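Q: Could you fold this chain for me?
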Amino acid sequence: MKKWLTALLGISAGLGLALAGQTTHAATEQAFTSTGWVSYVPNYGIELWKSPTAPHGTTGRKLPNGSAWKISAAVREGDHYWYKLGTNQWMDGRYIALSPVAKDRSVDQSIKRNVVRISGTAPIYSTPNGKATGKSLKNASYWQFSDRAVAGKHMWFKVSANQWVKDSWAKEVVPYQNPSQFYQVNYKQIKPTGQVGYNLVRGSEGIKTWLTLRALGLNSSYANMSASAQNAVANFQRNHGLPATGIVNQATWVKMGFAASSWTSIDSWIYPLQTPWYADRSAHIEAMIKAAYSYLGKPYIVGASTSTQYGNDCSGLVTQALYAAGINPLPVSSIQHAQPGNEWNSRLLAASNKFKHVSYADRQRGDLIFYTSPYDGRVWHVAIYLGNNQVIESWPPRVMVQPIKNSQRSWVTGVARPFV
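A: Sure. Below is the predicted structure, expressed as structure tokens.
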């Protein structure tokens, strides 16, 4: 995430991001001309109040999520504003965004929305509505602000000491989110789902199975804990003074020469979140693709969805790439994928109504491409579309970039869009 932040913000050392303490403001009505969007939860609304000062007094009217309202004045209350719609009609600014919000998307109220995106070349002023400093902020750069103030009918954002930018150029960032019926974007690191430190039983797959087969000198091209693999495990256990169960537990794992900590660290690894809360849709898509590229050249390993130290299979690669961009595609998970019977997670992803399904003709960069087997017509593969009829995928023998259709898999059955 650090590299992403550095590239996106482009913050110079001269400006800095030191957060100053917020100024105390009296509850004075100030002329302010803008549009505010209700930023709450789909199918719900916020109260419209009679006054910006306590006890406020409700009007009995609610403003629906995503609706836009013309603002004529503002009153500061602590660290937020109240916005005036008309006589005795005020909106609580904690639930109002000064940038568009779609009615079918939630806005996470736990996020401190303190970032603006610059549109055009934005001059910097020493004070709100004061003198220009001669410095400016670059177009499409992102800036954290420590305070804001209304002056000259505009909102001003403090990006550093004695450095303010006007809302004509600085647009408040609202967290990107999918419509409520689809997978929701996470703004914090995704945690593993399932038992961390699971045993390897009949039918187990994934990295721990792959490493076990290799440690025992068995063929690991199909990383499945088969009957013959269990027999080999039982023989190993018998020869090393362990109960000959054929089930790989942590004690057996350590006897095979692996670090005790890796028994759980392999299971718990989730791709680090690459997108801060203020990342837009495009940034989420690029984070997903960049994560997939970090596995380029790694081996195809059936049932695997783990760190870049190893390899993945097709759905394992997609799962980790989604994690990197903030999507947790449950019931599919990195741990669940290695359990018996879950090799074909591509089928679960293809059938999920938590993605937006689009036509093949409408495919876009970042979409998931699903393929069916020519033998039984069932989904057997998933890849990430890069554009220009190219995909990144894990297909035997490794993770690679390939044409969207080739001689091995040309039967596209569906296209799903993770970020809508």
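A (continued): The chain has a mean pLDDT of 94.
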